[in-house]
Amino acid sequence: MSNESNLKGRPFGWLIFGIRDADRQIVGSQYRVNRADLDSLKHEIAIKSSGGLTFREIYELMLPEGRVVLFQIPAAPLGIPTAWDGHFYGRNGSSIVALSLQEIEQIRSQVMKKDWSADICHSATVHDLEPDAIIKARTEYKKKFPRLADEVDSWDDLAFLNKARVTVQGEITNAALILLGKPEAEHFIQPVVAKMSWILKDKDNIEQDYDHFGPPFILNSELLFSKLRNLKYRYMPDNSLFPIEVNQYDAYVIREALHNCIAHQDYEKQGRINIVEKPDELIFTNLGSFIPQSIAAVIERDSPPEYYRNRFLAEAMVNLNMIDTIGSGIKRMFFTQKRRFFPLPDYDLSDPNKVQVRIIGKILDENYTRMLINHTDLDLSTVILLDKVQKRERIKPEEVKRLRSQRLIEGKYPVIYVAAQIAALTGDKTAYIKNRAFDKEFYKSMVIKFLQQYKSADRQEIDNLLISKLSDTLDETQKRKKINNLLFEMSKKDGTIVNMGSSKRPKWVLT
After folding, report:
1. E-strand spans in 386-430?
2. What pLDDT, on a 0 to 100 scale, did the predictor assign at position 219?
3. pLDDT digits 0-9 by tens, 424-451
């Protein structure tokens, strides 16, 4: 499980006792019911596993259906497959098998792999670098290190590039060619592709325009940035006659997303960095796995990750003021969107060989936005959960419990929405009422009043009567099922109505 978690880019795997495999029903487990015996497993496992690896945590849940024990197994460290008693194991479906040689090498290569961006192009010289790009690099270096501003002007180009760690002892690196190289110098890095593509699409996802940009990226990333339309967006805060006017996108967030693509692209995959512009969103895509493995790991971590795909390139970009100190830029993007009261960045990591980031340039849920305006003290982890709620993404039961304890959400899991007190505070009571389900008796009384006036009703008439009154958080199928249950209860339990037609063509009347 440790090795498989590493290979699948997951931070950990789970071994669970007390749940039946076939149907996932809780059946309970009596394994080591004494907690001390259970905890002693950590030491027992560490003795025989390589590097003393053991369970990260052992959770014991006492549920009404039975006891469940969950063992959290950390992924094998980067570059080091996990061995048990000297042997490497993996899984094939439900079977334990020997880890294949290819899989062992795949894990080992995570650290052993050379940093392509630091490789020297021996046939390239400083004359293959764009002079304007070097001038731009000097300007940004001074911004990054203002105490050295006076000295920088006295350095020749090679001395500057060495100190900025773009070159190595005067030798031109792949990183130097990507960031500062002349367009015609791109042949030095072939067959590697160093290209950024901007694609404009309309609301129907039909391509309207495009452009491609190669080296020098330090200049051409600015040209690509200028292609993006950043319209004014207006929204009305509570108790104000004057709208707040902001740009659709924050310049820092766009540049950080774009420069992250440059810094973390797997150039040896010979693909392009893509920036797709749609009417209300920007989508940034680069090739290569997301090395931190999860956004949660990046947001929660207080220190940079231990491993980078293009460490030399990333450090050069830090020195040239293109990205923040390594590891902090993504977190700052989230804080920036939170301060602007906009949706947070969406990271799609479903493809292990690609990272996709979506920046939304409009308000999705006015309740969410107004709530951030009125509750600026909410911590980022809470806002991340609320952002998922507004995007109708499912969150974990324990996360629902956390939000509910703060009275930030309401509704029956998994259909949850902004709580009544927030809606009342922000003044968006109509949206709350549309999302909130009325009391069941309200719907029953509507049916009875209809039948009192019109004597009978078929199913279509009942649907027309009730569907618009049901919660907007339900889809059409869920609404019709709710009406089914209501009619069943009124006829079989309450005895207030009866079906005088057939099951396929019902005709409801009062009893």
Report:
1. 409-410, 417-418
2. 97
3. 444 455 555 555 556 678 889 999 999 9
H or E element that contains 277? strand 273-278
Q: Coil, helix or strand for 65? A: coil
Q: Label the pairing between strands 497-499 and 417-418.
A: unpaired
121-130, 192-201, 316-325: which has the minimum mean pLDDT?
316-325
The span from the CA of 404 to the CA of 423, in Å, is 14
Residue that the structure tokens 């960045």 belong to: 345
- Token duo for residue 107: 């894990």
Residues 184, 127: contact at Cβ < 8 Å? no
Burial class (CB in 10 A: 0-12, 13-18, 19+), 24: exposed
DSSP string, 247-265: ESS-HHHHHHHHHHHHHH-
Region 119-132 average pLDDT? 94
Tokens of 129: 């670098």
User: CB of 265 within 8 A of CB of 287?
Assistant: yes
Taking phi over 0 as left and psi of -120 to 50 as alpha, with beta for the rest, 214 belongs to: beta
- Say if CB 286 and CB 355 are below 8 A apart: yes
Q: Which residue has the tokens 């590891």?
A: 327
Bridging pattern class, strands 57-63 and 83-84: unpaired
Contact between 135 and 155 (Cβ < 8 Å): no
Cα R_g (the chain), whole angstroms: 29
pLDDT digits (tens, 9 = 90+) for 209-242: 999 999 999 999 999 999 999 888 776 665 555 5
% residues pLDDT > 70 (the chain): 90
Question: Other CB atoms closer than 10 Å to residue 14's CB: what's the count?
Answer: 12
Complete DSSP assignment for 43-102: HHHHHHBGGG---SEEEEEEETTEEEEEEEEEPPPTT---EETTEEEEEETTEEEEPPHH
